[in-house]
Amino acid sequence: MQAILLVGGLGTRLRPLTLTTPKQMLPLLHRPMIEHVVSGLARHGVARVVLALGYHHDAFRDAYLDGRCAGVEMACVVESEPLDTAGAIRFAYTESGMEASGGTFLVANGDVITDLDVGAMLRVHRSAGAEATIHLMEVENPSRYGVVVTDPDGRVDAFLEKPAEPAPSRWINAGTYLMEPSVIGRIDGGRRVSVEREIFPAMAAAGTLWALRHNTYWVDAGTPQTYLQAQLDLLDGRRGPAAVGVSPEAAVDPGALVERSVVMVGAVVGAGSAVRGSAVHPGAVIGAGATVLDSVVGSGATVGQGARVTGGTLIGEGFAVEPGAVLSGARVPEVA
Ligand code: GDD
Ligand code: MG
């Protein structure tokens, strides 16, 4: 099975971290987010991935010069301008040679970290004779997602992307799809087309779209809170043995307190400081006596002595927080 991974978005919700690094290349635990996605798919038989790239595409190419990502054969296609999700699927499919091999293929949003059983999804897709099948998850607050209404057999009756009105269902599009090649024929070339706003609603109306309700481990790591959550879940052992948060190549002072946090390679955590529920990226420096709580300190950034950084603050790559500063829910630098 081949997979198209949608990784060309701007990552606006994670700015300023994504001003210098595309979302799916941000480190999650100790390796880029994309590698978590690819290795999850590889466990379920995906043998080749095509990255649908745009924004900061060089970051991916430079990281995987040998054409393999997490041990899986990787190809890249680059949109000269963003084509939106369906436009990107069509472009990746036609430009990467997938057309020649034909057959069912997988598509995933590149920020979705999940333990979805792709084999189970494929069985549902085949037995329904679906043109496409969507993985659904049940959530408390569906309105920031694609909301999906199905009939009792799993056929999709309606697909509503980020509905303004109260959502008619708590089942949401979890961002992994199986598709038949005929889906490509539904997507216009050369313009922006959204799979969520245009293609899925049309397929629902045609009765060819199916869904698999499957509650499993799942997080869309595209917001500050969920980007941290995906890492805390690994530390807390919610997906197997608890992961180790502090890199052996980080320098944590014995007088510092590091709790439920990821401290990455080359980072320095000074004496008397406290780091909780946070991610400290490679080469970042936490000054003596500083507090970092539920926040992200970008690569090579500095938190000055005695500063307090809390409440989902994001500090951009190479930026500095002044000694003694107090920040909560801030962006450094400020972003529009
Ligand atoms: N190549 C390419 N080109 N990729 C794109 C483009 C584009 O123009 N626009 C977005 N992407 C990629 C993003 O990089 C991301 O990996 C994926 O498409 C989805 O975009 P997000 O910006 O993360 O969307 P979302 O999280 O608001 O909503 C999507 O995911 C939800 C589940 O996590 C939708 O698919 C929702 O329906 C879904 O519920
Ligand atoms: Mg997302």
Gyration radius, rounded: 21 Å
Strand elements, count: 29
Bound molecules: guanosine-5'-diphosphate-alpha-D-mannose, magnesium ion
Assigned CATH superfamily of the largest domain = Spore Coat Polysaccharide Biosynthesis Protein SpsA, Chain A
Largest sheet entry: 8 strands, mixed
| Overall average pLDDT | 97
Give the C-level CATH assignment of the largest domain. Alpha Beta
Strand content: 25-35%
Structural class: alpha/beta
Shape: elongated
How many angstroms separate the termini? 41 Å
How many separate domains? 2
Strand order of the largest sheet: 5-6-4-1-7-12-9-13
Tally of contiguous helical segments: 8
CATH topology-level name of the largest domain: Spore Coat Polysaccharide Biosynthesis Protein SpsA, Chain A
CATH architecture annotation of the largest domain: Alpha-Beta Complex
Estimated helix fraction: 10-25%
Segments where pLDDT lies below 50 for 5+ residues? none
